[in-house]
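Practice record 12: protein with iron/sulfur cluster.
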Amino acid sequence: MTERPLLEVHALKKHFPLKAGFFGGRRNVVHALDDVSFDLARGETLSVVGESGCGKSTLGKTILRLLEPTDGAVMLDGQRVDNVPRSRLGDFRRRVQVVFQDPFSSLNPRQRVRDIIAEPIVNFGLAHGSELEDRVAALMDKVRLPRDAMRRFPHEFSGGQRQRIGIARALAPGSDLIICDEAVSALDVSVKAQIVNLLADLQDELGVALLFISHDLAIVEHLTHRVAVMYLGKIVELADRRTLFATPHHPYTRALLSAVPVPDPTVARNRIILKGDVPSPINPPDGCRFQSRCPYVFDRCRSEEPLLRPTTEPGQTSACHLDAVPA
Ligand code: SF4
């Protein structure tokens, strides 16, 4: 019997109604997320990638119930968490943690590191006294910060060190899933690599699942098991890492990948420059949302929405009417 996924997301929607104009009339709606579905196994990393504004951060916030979903379902271990009162989300809040992009604003500047890491352990009543101190010390070791740093304040640390503190805080209540929302985007290249390696090591050691939201495909290649590519509020391709990087199917994924630098100077990569404008997420077009930028657009794309369907590669799904996209 196959194990039930840790996280299941079914047809998740998040729409933001805009205020009606002075003369009333039809209210416009921003379609930030439309029918997003995927699942995530225990100990797995799924990366969600796409350009700024594609809805990937909204996805993380809606799963976390920082934003209320418009429609759809989110389940943790088979239990709906999208429609229960916030007051009954205690165990979900303990098990699903987040690391945000900006380590400068996501840590309380008035709290010492020890208190920042201890807070979720205390709030969820998981330990106190010497056991609490031992747990905080062990978390400092896990994120490779010196134990004497516990007495210091966040402003005394570099960006990478602050993100280590944020990761320790996210691990503190024994979480099963960490949503990393552009968690390394604000860091220098070398520090980025250190934090990505740390996350990969922690995942191996602790078996925590990661939903890794990023605009940077080069970073996710070294961390992830599977990749979901988002465009204008929808997943347009979902595949395991090896398949997505070796044989991307969707024209948008191909364009994103063509912009990833190749470390080998003898290997040339043909950069695909997308022309055309990204449509507005306010009342997006009928048919394929990528039609205004797709080099292969044809009549059907303008009238019929392509749904995610399997390609010839095992485990790969793509939302494109073409069976094979020209090389
Ligand atoms: Fe391009 Fe049409 Fe495929 Fe959309 S459905 S990606 S417009 S070929």
